[in-house]
Design goal:
Length: 132
């Protein structure tokens, strides 16, 4: 006879009825693409997690844009040389490229990645989300 202590992790996960945050793991609260892979993922927790990613990226982009405005302002007064301004602008673009790469990594399809790329490089800044 097998002891109840030897139940595998998969069986323990299958027996769970609620996620860590207390949301029910059933029906409309499950992510459909995760179900097709044989997983159960809480839709509400995923929504909160993605919203957090978006807020983090938006805040980082805002900080980078404010830094660029500060960098360009002294140049108007003549305190920065053109080479120094170009170096600061290159550093800003490198930071923005890291944010874009992170956003593209969260995209699940080529269409989402293309839309994300357009939103970043259209001159309007990031306006759309990544994977939905």
């Amino acid at each position: 006879m097998v002891s109840r202590d030897l139940i595998g992790q998969a069986a323990k996960n299958a027996a769970r009825t609620h996620c860590r945050r207390g949301h029910e793991l059933a029906g409309a609260n499950l992510v459909p693409w995760a179900l097709r892979r044989g997983e159960r993922m809480c839709r509400e927790c995923r929504r909160l997690r993605v919203a957090g990613y978006r807020e983090e990226a938006k805040a980082a982009l805002g900080r980078a844009e404010r830094a660029l405005a500060v960098v360009e302002a002294p140049h108007v007064a003549g305190s920065l040389t053109r080479a120094e301004l170009d170096a600061e602008r290159a550093a800003y673009m490198a930071r923005r490229a890291v944010l874009v790469d992170a956003a593209l990594a969260r995209c699940r399809t080529r269409e989402q990645a293309d839309a994300e790329r357009r939103s970043w490089f259209s001159g309007r800044g990031r306006t759309t989300g990544g994977a939905k």
